[in-house]
Amino acid sequence: MKKLIITALALAAIAIAPGAYAQTKMVGGAEMFPTKNIVENAVNSKDHTTLVAAVKAAGLVETLESAGPFTVFAPTNEAFDKLPKGTVETLVKPENKATLTKILTYHVVAGKLSAADLWAKVKAGKTELKTVQGGSLWVKADGKKLYLVDEKGGKSWITIADVNQSNGVIHVINTVLMPK
C-alpha cells in the first residue's frame, strides 16, 4: 500500500510538472540537465571530448554559454575519428582557428529546433536550414530516422534527438558536417 501511494505521488508530480523529468537525457554516460547551458552539459559527455576541445580551441565557449537559443548538431568523438588521420590535430592549432570556427559554426542553427520541428520541415518540403556559419544543411528522413546532408553531400544521422538545454537544444550526430 505504501509503495502504491509513493508511486501515485510520483505520477502526480510528473503530471503537474511534465517537463521537469521527461527532458533529462543521458549522453556520453552523463545526465544532460535542461537547466544547464550547452557547454555546461557537453563537458560532462565522454562522447563529446573532441567537440569540447575544438569549441575551446575556436574560442566559442562564451558564445555557446550565452542566452541563445541555439540548435547544435553535436558530432561524437567517433564522428571526428571518421575524418582523415591528423585532421583534428591540425584544426585545433592556433593558425587554423578560422577554419575550425567555420566548421563548428556550420553545426549550429539560430533558434531552438526540436525533432518535431525538423520532422515538420521535412513534411512541408522546407528542408533547408541556415547555419550560423552562413551555409546550408538539409534535414531529411529515412523511415523513422532523421539525418542531415551537408554542402558537400555528406550525410550524418541524428542518433540522440532533443537534448534540451537552458539556451537551446542539442541533437547528437554521428558524422562531422562539412561546409563548402
TrEMBL record:
SMART domains: FAS1. Keywords: Signal. Residues 35-177 form the FAS1 domain. PROSITE patterns: FAS1. It comes from the Bacteria. It holds the Pfam family Fasciclin. Residues 1-22 form the signal peptide. GO terms for cellular component: extracellular space. The keyword Signal applies. The keyword Signal applies. This is Fasciclin domain-containing protein. It comes from Mucilaginibacter corticis.
